[in-house]
């Protein structure tokens, strides 16, 4: 008998089935302004929230480029309009078609989209089903996300009920990368980004 | 220093005298507990969440075989390789086999208690495969060649000065004690490792049966990188990690972050369903090793089963007045503190760890804080009973309790014993039990016992 | 309604005044009760050290004495918890130990519906939550309510009042150093509270606290809650 069978046999012997699996009531966020709630939670975990009009995206990113002193940028493939905005940004280099994550590892910032924003916790949701670079949200020092207001949902339950099990992976980001491993002092930017900007239109 | 459970008492004494360690522990623990109270008390339904989490775990553990098979089925459908290991040896062999086949030279590891449990890093290094801990705290203890002292805050026992000196000595960097700078140093070194690693090794906080997902919760982003960059990802998880549904995660996320690091939500969560062949990053092969290593032993006993609900948040350690004072290393096990005193003897050998269930005042703080409501203090009581049954307690103690039972069973003997003690102390022969009287006074017996007063003075009032 | 008074062995022998105070309170409230003279111990010391067989022997003895009572009342959270929470487990009998056993303050407030005993105690008093009363029996407000209604008594809270005093039965002699460190912190916070007296539902905690305080010459006076409540 191999280990699998051995373990399963033993487990089956001790199967009791006394306790029913509890039902989980979906807790929708009622009477809450989702944008406000998201902003509050996102800023509380150290994210930088920028709400702006579509025609201001260029200016907002340009401001970030100046404050963060960004020279090299990786940008995901957005729709034509946003691609055009990104193309005009004043930086040394914009990588849009990397052949390996190594190229992303040397940029100062990445600009990506996301799938959902969760108001309850200020969480940004990335669902991977496609060709996108997963590591683009982790490798650079600065991460800029462009999202639409309608992507905000109340809770993680809602995300799960929309996504089902059909994805390669889901990545949830709630604020910048952080640690408190040294004397409980919170330091941002351990392995992932130090700054997370969310531009919402 | 030699850290084994047998040496608990000696190590405890040493730890108590180590003022630096005490200061480091107190600072870290106070900080986390205060913050935890804040983020727990803002939830109006904390108790309901605990109960819900408890019931989900209870249900799952009662039907563990069913859910593991379901998980396996779904994971295989998703293209994940599922391996079953009955012990550490088998798990290690699986890993080395994969590594050899891939001609791997460098592994990056994210934080995982099971890999500590089976000594995976040491094993890989012995086999010539460089293996690097990428969680900052784990990186620090790896550099110091120590064991983690807490399951979610491994370097809690160290001060910034100590870490600064360690970095300067081991990494040849300029001495600094600023957490930001130290973190930046680690980031730089580890970034290189990430980019060149052949294999990423992780644990798993949860395995979702209905979707075959591997779920990893973290703050630094190292687990994200570990499971994204290398071409091969090996996850190792205890068989108790499975939960039925994706939606169950919403409950566990709420309690886990708050209990482990006093956060409302951890910075990063990876929910991994399948390898991504021919995609720009993400592993092409994913393995999940389901590890037993003594867990089915716990499952056999109704009393011990609940220990398998543990989500390894580490809260019971921080809340424990013993752990607070002696620190994690004293327990001589990678699972220290209250739940460690349950897991260590039951999973890794009762005889060696028989002292641990007794190293508690049974105050119940662990149960009070445990997010999945494990009655840890009552399990410890049960294990004391097991220790007695297994004949692991001292002869003297046994005799004492035999005699005690005889005198307590019979009121005449009880009264006789009490008068004897009164007499003995009257002539100045009061027995000294040093373990108490070295630091504390012990009261004398009262001149007259209550029953005497009752008989002579009170009783008649009631007739 | 038959009420049995259980005076645990160490109160009987070391702190008989606690038993006397309990009797005084019950008498004043007009409660009819019985004190069976053949009682000894609840078996907790053996039980908590792992000697369940021995504990069972003692529990059988207790059962023979107390089975017939509708209520069992005891001025000790710890011993009450032993009977209430663990007798069902070791005896597996038909007695409803869980619902008929009460710690004194719990009994006064929740069974008799009393919130004051009419006592007077012109002192500053700190209440120490014993682990067993607090976490095994869920007693937190009852003693505080009764104390607050004692005339001239000033009740102060001590920092970390819910922390263990480090006694833990045989724990205190198996791990004397750890136990002492715990009681040290407890005594420190009692001293810092400025209280003249520290009180509790459990004389065992008080014995431990006093044992350390006396050795170190701290001016901490201990008094069982029954003694305060009986001061009328
Ligand atoms: S026993 Fe409970 S508190 Fe302790 S680590 Fe496990 S889940 Fe956390």
TrEMBL record, chain A:
Residues 97-201 form the LUD domain. InterPro entries: FTHF_cligase-like_sf, LUD_dom, NagB/RpiA_transferase-like. It comes from the Bacteria. Transmembrane segments: none annotated. It holds the Pfam family LUD_dom. PANTHER family: LACTATE UTILIZATION PROTEIN C (PTHR43682). This is L-lactate dehydrogenase complex protein LldG. It comes from Candidatus Chryseopegocella kryptomonas. The lineage of its organism: Bacteria, Pseudomonadati, Candidatus Kryptoniota, Candidatus Chryseopegocella.
TrEMBL record, chain B:
It holds the Pfam family LUD_dom. It comes from the Bacteria. InterPro entries: 4Fe4S_Fe-S-bd, 4Fe4S_Fe_S_CS, FTHF_cligase-like_sf, Helical_ferredxn, LUD_dom, LutB/LldF, LutB_C, NagB/RpiA_transferase-like. This is L-lactate dehydrogenase complex protein LldF. GO terms for molecular function: 4 iron, 4 sulfur cluster binding; metal ion binding. Gene3D superfamilies: Alpha-helical ferredoxin, NagB/RpiA/CoA transferase-like. Keywords: 4Fe-4S, Electron transport, Iron, Iron-sulfur, Metal-binding, Repeat, Transport. One of its GO terms (biological process) is lactate metabolic process. Residues 300-322 form the 4Fe-4S ferredoxin-type domain. It comes from Candidatus Chryseopegocella kryptomonas.
TrEMBL record, chain C:
PANTHER family: LACTATE UTILIZATION PROTEIN A, UNCHARACTERIZED PROTEIN YKGE. GO terms for cellular component: cytosol. This is L-lactate dehydrogenase complex protein LldE. The lineage of its organism: Bacteria, Pseudomonadati, Candidatus Kryptoniota, Candidatus Chryseopegocella. GO terms for molecular function: oxidoreductase activity. Pfam families: CCG. It comes from the Bacteria. Residues 4-84, 125-209 form the Cysteine-rich domain.
